[in-house]
Amino acid sequence: MENIINDVLKEIENITDTKTLYDVRVKYLGKKGIISELLSILGTLSIEEKKEKGPIINNLKQEVTRILDDKNREIELKLLNEKLKNEKIDISLPSTKINIGAPNILEKLIEEVEELLMSMGYDVVDGPEVEEDRYNFEMLNIPKGHPARDAQDTFYIEGEEILLRSQTSPVQVRTMLENKGEKSIRMICPGKTYRRDDDDATHSHQFMQIEGLLVDKDISLSDLKGTIDVIVKKLFGQDIVTRFRPSYYQFTEPSVEVDISCFNCKGNGCNICKNTGWITVAGAGIVHPNVLKMGGYDPSIWSGFAFGFGAERLAMLKYGINDLRVFYNTDLREVNTFDRKDVE
């Protein structure tokens, strides 16, 4: 036992790397190593000899293992110290600037509107972007052959029945059908919509809408105006004034265009409001009785309002963006022109 231990100590004395030390470990402790052979001999001995020799060989194995483990820790510590010495960091040097991402402007604006309306009791609802004609048009009081279908210039996928939704209003229809005309609804459905259009600074074949629907009893235009007023004040400031102008949509009656007083010139006239003092931001109105009927609601009992904002339109106004394509562009030279503080 002493001779083997001395041999091990002698062999590892000048070893400076873990690979060579591993070879020594295999020589003594491996399956065919010196100590393993001694253990195999135990099987040939008598019971009395096993009782005498067994503990000695086991102690030998434990001692050699300890010696090799200690040497391994010694080598690893030495290598670590050398590495730390050679890779010393001068903390007084200036740091490297790392570019980090900013929240997407459109996504941030939509989240801001969602949080506001959720605090008012609204649910955020989603729906399919590949939609059926009946939800996208017919149940919104736009039957086949209606000229309004041409104005929306839809992407059809299968015949005239399956299409890319041209508005998020189908989600409102689906929500009414799910409620079966039995309870009130407060919901918004932000999401992508698609229409055939040439992409330029103010148009895109794909854009984001933020639509809202409220169905309850005794709902009037005053309720709609109050809701719109809260939203625009949150986005553009507490001094913003809201006004309605008569308009026409197939799914609302009466219908209105929503204008806000220009937040830039305070109504005096500038390039943003085209010198009118007012900016159009949304379309809205009282839900048409036909739409309520097709959604399963009795219009003699229930009424409601709906509104729709263009998310890009709101963001362009809020952040002073002149080109809609910036929202979908990956050119950092354009994106970096926006102050991170504005979108955080």
Secondary-structure-derived class? alpha+beta
Q: Which CATH architecture of the largest domain would you pick? A: 2-Layer Sandwich
What number of structural domains do the residues give? Answer: 2
- Assign a percent range to the helix content: 40-55%
Contiguous runs where pLDDT drops below 50 for at least 5 residues: 340-344
Q: Quick one: CATH superfamily of the largest domain?
A: Bira Bifunctional Protein, Domain 2
Q: Tell me, what's the shape?
A: elongated
- Give the SSE order as H and E letters: HHHHHEEHHEEHEEHEEEHEHHH
Termini separation comes to 72 Å
Number of helices: 13
For the largest beta-sheet, the strand count, sense and barrel status come to:
7 strands, mixed
Strand order in the sheet with the most strands:
1-5-6-10-9-8-7
CATH topological fold name of the largest domain: BirA Bifunctional Protein, domain 2
Please give the radius of gyration in angstroms.
38 Å
**Number of β-strand runs:** 10
Describe the structure.
By secondary structure, the protein is of the alpha+beta class. The chain folds into 2 domains: 2-86; 105-343, Bira Bifunctional Protein, Domain 2 (BirA Bifunctional Protein, domain 2, 2-Layer Sandwich), CATH 3.30.930. Helices cover 42% and strands 20% of the residues. The chain has 13 helices and 10 strands. The protein has helices at residues 2-12, 18-29, 34-41, 47-86, 105-118, 133-136, 147-152, 169-179, 221-236, 289-294, 311-319, 332-335, 340-343; strands at residues 123-124, 130-132, 155-158, 162-164, 185-194, 206-216, 242-249, 252-261, 278-287, 303-310. The strands form 2 sheets. It has a 7-stranded mixed beta sheet, with helices on both faces. The two termini are 72 Å apart.
